[in-house]
Amino acid sequence: MSSHGLLRLFVVAAVITLPALPLSAQHPIDPKTLDCENWTEREVITQTEMNICAGRDTRAQRQTLERLIREFQEKLATTEPTQWARLEANQKSWQEFINKDCEWEAAFAEGGSIDPLVYEQCVDHATAERIARLRIVLCEGQGLTGECPESRKYIPRAARHSTPGATRHRHGQKEQATRRQTPANSRSQGE
Q: Taking the model in full, what pTM does it have?
């Protein structure tokens, strides 16, 4: 074999054995300019983009919950200080539980590129559920009379972002929430 043929064989072998660069390394992602609108509906999206967008969703949910808690503080701190103190303590405990629970869930993907996505979506969905439960209590009779203008400010986003696995997870939470409500409803009806 000639030296030209040997060089050609070497180049081909080197190209074949070189690890392919991940897409994100080929096209760096700028988190500041990444468009996360309807990110779960895209046909082509990198894992890094999914992680960033899920993180944004979670931050938005947490900000909404923080606004809701501040509204409770304004409403209860002077008129019902005991109830405010209870909510404040419960919220701290809830936050600690959700962080630990979602860390546990994400540990199944520990070290993998999907780990941050699993954690963020777990927190996002739990936070959305917390908002849904608390927002109605803002209303007269702690929601027994239905929705009110204060609670409508916290209606969840129309289109929840989710991946197929997260949808199953969220539906599982809804089913559990329904089961938890049933005994409470039974008790309130004297059964």
A: 0.66
